[in-house]
Every structure is written in structure tokens, then in C-alpha cells.
């Protein structure tokens, strides 16, 4: 039973492409393509200036090279920096006007956009390639004064808010990929929750990379004003493709006094085939600032896709008593590589952070947790708890833990623990005995291993994530 | 000034008795060092110990040390019987193995035999390769177990000032043999100087080597020590590190577990205050199955003391059934003290047990309160708790007379608190 061979990896479930005509910017990274993007987006001058400033800085920057997963050099001149479905030039006013092919794609993905939207109670700002196509539930949100729209729309309609907060957490002087994003970002989501408003539903954006050879540069900005609360979901699937595609998104979160932001991600982009050909490069910068007192930011991520995942959703705990949390599951199979973790920068007094990271590697994959806990001299009575567990399946894969811990304060406490192990044979045997086959047993055990993180996800996401965990590991034990 | 510290190649000509291979090897390494200088915080391994900044702050000038001092009088430790070796500024002056069978021991000045060693990325090692001109070679022949401990007295003389010393040592323990050493540093110099040493240890099948590092008292030394340890099957290496009393000390310990069932233990108990900076960096390479490694590092940090632990466990894909453990704990007594750690795991085999933990925080207020209700003053209570914290390591020394000796040394340090 143990050695029974299991059918090869399940084909990528969401691998399909849709034929929609694209409008593309000319290939290459230069001032003209940035101006083209800005023009297509009908952006004001200050936005263009900001982009160009980032671009001029980018010219002096080098790509970082300290990460564990190395990747072939990317030719930035060979990418398209803008591609939009044609039907977006004259935006549809209702769903009926939306390109039926698009709707069909979403249906395959199970996005509750049309008739499912009321049932699921989810407001969706769907990004097909780079332009927001349709936004639902706007009315209900508008009533509460919540702004949930594409960032391009926000730049036009709420320039003050955008101007004030964009780049305040991830400045244009940040690292290479963040700066690249600042120069060429095409679209993304914008959320503003006014003071003392609790967002009545989970806000969600589904990203989807579609057009071939298009780098996707999302920019998300979420602001939770005093005393507000929002839970934001981000989920990703991408069509099957051979070429490596770069995805360098920036996500900025700002929580003011007593505000709370919960940001959940399920990432299931195309990981490349069994031999490691193709797949998405997921180089994302996510950072949240707990600006106000008693504010809280919580990151939850389930990373199962992408050829290379390289991201560190971080929290800057500026406000006194602020809280940062990071829950992560990273699953790598075949030739996938992940280098992910978090940074918790404690600046305010009585700040707390918690990190739970679960890494699972199988096949020939490499999985690295890399994190920083930095307690500054002024952050009195701060606390951190970190737990990183790794699970290895087979001796061709690797699991690595690289935590950096800095404590400069005698009243603060930092705790870190990490373990690495394999799936317990006895547990497998027990499950087999009860009639579960090898794959079901692995899926069950791994789901148990990840439970602490899965619990953090909102209901709809948790179900999808649990399925993903099982699917991602199929064929890895046998 | 020191930021661009470079060493002229004619310094190599001054070293006596070297052949062509040796000379080329030295020149190559000197160039490597001159290209980088002392490493700074931009280099990953030196992130927490910025020697470029530390050295340029503390040394206006720096010259190469001479190891021919006339000072050789050392007071022997009276607490326990022991064999001894005298090193003065790194140079072997005298040795006495009165408790042992001398035919089983080979001792001489260090002499390099092969120069094919891999290039090192550590500028201190390059510097050592280029300039080391003193040190010892100690070999314990097959099947001999030391009766008494060997104390290696490491004397640094009064006349040292703004100098850098480079020395290289090698210890070989052959099959079925056992050796126990104490590295005891005595520093008579009241001035600042740098000592850069490179220790090579090879443990053959079924051998045992135990080592304790401790020093007589506080001093203004800036030390870097790289120790490279190779373990053959069934061998056992254990190392205790106690506070150095130095201003700066970086111990870089590399252990290759090359033979099955080999074991390695690294334990440290450090009390650092007054701007002392001590880093322990370890890399334990599990290269074959069924090996064990265990690390436990404890730091107590007061007034601007800075403790650093960078530990890495590497498990090769074939090294199944590895058991590796790593724990670092720190007590911060003062807001100006600092503890940085980077406990790293790099694992490629699945049937392994690897774990690490790292904690840092203050002394538990409840414990202080409890002790005070029992009649202790606050200071006494804190001292008692620190002692208890560090004693966990000290109590693992088996010989009671040596343990007492170490306990006394540590108590003296804590008393200053």
C-alpha cells in the first residue's frame, strides 16, 4: 500500500486562456511606456510625475540577489507593461454589457460575480489582466461611506486620499521590484473605510493574469480610518502558460487609531509543469503600517502556486498597543520555490506580534521561511511570538528557516521556535487502515498541520484553501 | 584610516622558513584580504558585528604583532591537577605533560603541509592564512586517553598595543583517543590589540574531544577565532564557551559531521556588560546519516553589552535520521543592552528531527519578588537568578573541581553587577 504508485500530478485545474483582444502598450520599459500607461488611465499630472520619479530612481537600482530561489535574468525590455481587455475602453455600465467570455471565465473560476453575488454576499472588484471590469455591491458600501474601487478610479475621484497615502508605507525609494511597480503599476484596488465604520462584508478581488508576456503590476491601497474594521480577500488563479511571467504587486495597508485590517490571500497561480517549465514569478511587496494607537493588522496567506514566491508581508507597529499578526501556509511541490515570511518592526510601546508559519515542501521544491522581528529601544513591554514549522516529503526537497531576531529592550520578550519533520508514518498507517487512500490521508494530515492558519481565513476562503492544500500535494507521497 | 586598512606584501617576506607554495598561498590570501579589508555590516555574516566600524572606532593605527616577547611567567591554576602548554602572544613556549604517557603525544610548532584549502570568504581567515606565523600542533596518538585535563595558557603580554596577531593551531585526536583541554586566556596588556586565530581540529574514529574556553579577567582585546572541526564516525566533540571578558569577540565555529554516529555539543554561558560585544556563529554540517548536534547558548546582557548568536544547521539530503537542536536564550538587564540572533535551518533530508528556539526578555519580576519576600535584597535576588540562568550550562561540566573553578569565575563577574 505504502509503495503504491499514485497517478501523476493533477493537471492545473484552472489552466485555460480566454481570447479577448488586448490593447497593449509598446514593449519595453522606458518613459514612453510609462506615459502611455498614465495616458490610458487618464491620470492627472502629479501621478505621472510620481511614476517618472520612481522610474528615474529605478535606473540606479539593482535587482536584489540575496534570496534563496535564484531565477533566470528577466529582460525588462521584453515585457508589455500595459494590457487591457478592449471592451474596457467603453466601460460596461452593468454586468449585461460585460464581455460574455469574461463572465464565462469567472464562472469557471467560481467567482461569485453574477447570480452568485447575492448568495455569497461578496463584493467583487475583479481584475482581468490589468483593468477592473466590474464592481458589485457598490451601493451598499457607498451608503456607509466606504470607498471600494479600482485605484485608477480612486486617483481620479479621490485624489486627496490617494496622494496622502500612496507610497507612504512602501516609498518609491524602496527595493527594486517595489520601485518598478511604482513606475508602471496598471491597476489594483483602493479601499477607504471612514471612521467608526465596520465594513459589513468581506471585500474581495480576484486577480487573473491572462495575456501572454504581460507583467502584472497591481497596486493596492487600503486605509482604515479611526475605529474602523475591514476584512479583505485576495485570491489568484492563472491560465496555463509556458513562459515565465513576472508579477510584482505592491500592497499598502494603513490602520489609524483603533482600526483593524484583516488581509487574506489565497495564491494559486500557475506553478509551472512537473519539470519546472513556466510558471509565475510572484515577487510581491506587502506592507502594513499600524499608525494609530490600538490598531491591528493581520496577514493570512495560503501560497500554493507560482514557480517562485518571494514575499514578506510586514507590519510596522508604530502606534502604542498596536498588534501585528502573520499566518502563513506555503506549499511547494515539483520545482516550485518559495522564500516567504514577514517583518515585524516594533516601534511603539506595548506592541504585540505573532507569527505562525507552516511550510510544506515536496518533490524537488525549496521552501524558506525568512523573517525579521525587530524590537527597538523605545518599544517598551513589547512581545513577539514566532512559530515556524516545516514538513518535508522526500529527500529531494528542502526546508529552510532564516529568522532574524533583534531585541534592544529589557522589558520586551521575544520567543521563537521552529521544527522540521516529516509526515508521521504511524498517522499515515492509521488513516490507511480507516479506509483513506494515501492521498486522502496526506491531505488530512497536512490540513491538520496547517489548522492554526486555516482557522484564520474567512469561511468561503477556508473551504477553497483546504481543497487547494490537498490538490497541491497530490502525487507527492507514494 | 582603518577603513582602508591594507597590508603590504613585503610583510610576507618577513616570515621565516617558508617555501614557494606557502608564499604563493600567502600572497593570494593577502590580496583577498586587501580587496575587502575588515568586513562591515553590509556583508550578511557580519550584519551584527560590524568590524569595519568597531575597529576604525577603536584603532587609530594598527601594525602587525610580533610574538617574541620575553614575558613568560604564568601563575598556574592551583584548583586541579593538569598538564599545560604555554602560549605567549600565540607562540608555543613550553609544554608539560607530566600526567601522561609522553610517547603518545606529539607536540610542535604549527607547520602547514598543504595549501590547497578552499578560498575563504571570511577576510579574517584570509588574513590569517596570509600572515599567521605562530601556533602549535598537537596530536594524540591512537588509543590513548588523557588522564588529566590539558590547560592551554594563552598569555598576551604587556607590550601589545594597536597590534594584530595571527596564529594557527591544529589538534588531531587519533582513533579511540580522548583529550580534554581548557583554553585559558590571560591578558596583561592594558591596551587595545587584535588577535586573529584559526584552529583546526580533526577527530578520528571513536575519539573524544572536550574543550572549555575561559579567561582570567577583563581586558581590552578584540578577538576573532575561527575553528574548523572535522568529525569522523563515532567521534564526539564538545565545547563550552564562557564569557571572554574581551571588548570584542567573534567565535566562528564550523563543524563537519563526516562520519556516521558522530556527535557535537556546543554550549555557552556569557555575561556581557560595559560595551562588550560577543558573537557566536556556528555552522553545523550534517553530511552523513545518524549524527547528532546540540547547541545551547545563554546570554546575560547588561549596560550596553551586546550578544549575538548566528547558528546554522545544514542537513545534506543523504543525512537521514539527523537529530539537531539549537537553543539560544538571553536575559536583558538594561535598556541599552542588545541581543540579536539568527538561528538558521537549511534542511534537505526528510527523516530528521531539527528544531530551534530563541527567546530573549527580562528577568521575571515575580521571581525577584518571591526571593525578596524570603529576605534577599533586590540585587541579591537578581544575582541569584542570573547565576541560576547560567548555571544550567556550567552544571554540565562533569569534573567537579573544574566546574567549581568555572563557577567561581562566573560568580566574580556577576558580583560586579
Number of DSSP strand runs of chain A: 24
Summarize model confidence as the mean pLDDT of chain A: 80
**Biggest sheet of chain A: strands, sense, closure?**
10 strands, mixed
Shape of chain B: globular
Rg of chain A, rounded, reads: 22 Å
Strand content of chain A: 25-35%
Indicate the percent of residues in helices of chain A.
10-25%
* Strand order in space, largest sheet of chain A: 4-3-7-9-12-14-17-20-22-24
Query: What is the makeup of the main sheet of chain B?
Result: 10 strands, mixed
What structural category characterises the helix and strand content of chain B? alpha/beta
- CA radius of gyration of chain B: 21 Å
Determine the number of helices of chain A (DSSP H or I, runs of at least 4 residues): 12
User: What is the averaged pLDDT score of chain B?
Assistant: 89
Oligomer: heterodimer
H/E element order of chain B: HHHEEEEHEEEEEEEEEEEEEEEEHHH
Distance between the termini of chain B: 36 Å
Number of strands of chain B: 20
Short description:
Chain A is of the alpha/beta class and 478 residues long. In chain A, 22% of the residues lie in helices and 34% in strands.
Question: Layout of SSEs?
Answer:
The complex is a heterodimer of chains A (478) and B (417).
Chain A: E1 22-24, H1 31-40, H2 45-58, E2 83-85, H3 100-109, H4 116-120, E3 123-128, E4 131-135, H5 138-143, E5 147-150, H6 151-157, H7 159-165, H8 176-184, E6 189-193, E7 203-208, E8 219-224, E9 229-237, E10 245-247, E11 250-255, E12 260-268, E13 280-290, E14 296-303, E15 308-311, E16 314-317, E17 323-332, E18 337-340, E19 343-346, E20 352-362, E21 366-375, E22 383-393, E23 398-407, E24 413-422, H9 425-433, H10 438-449, H11 451-454, H12 459-472
Parallel strand pairs in A: 3-7, 6-8, 7-9, 8-11, 9-12, 10-13, 11-13, 12-14, 13-15, 13-16, 14-17, 15-18, 16-19, 17-20, 18-21, 19-21, 20-22, 21-23, 22-24
Antiparallel strand pairs in A: 1-2, 3-4, 5-6
Helix pairs in contact in A: 1-2, 2-8, 6-7, 9-10, 10-12
Chain B: H1 10-13, H2 20-36, H3 51-58, E1 63-64, E2 82-88, E3 91-96, E4 105-109, H4 123-131, E5 136-140, E6 149-156, E7 163-173, E8 178-187, E9 193-203, E10 208-215, E11 221-231, E12 236-242, E13 248-257, E14 263-272, E15 277-286, E16 292-301, E17 306-315, E18 323-332, E19 338-347, E20 353-361, H5 365-373, H6 378-394, H7 400-415
Parallel strand pairs in B: 1-7, 2-6, 5-7, 6-8, 7-9, 8-10, 9-11, 10-12, 11-13, 12-14, 13-15, 14-16, 15-17, 16-18, 17-19, 18-20
Antiparallel strand pairs in B: 2-3, 4-5
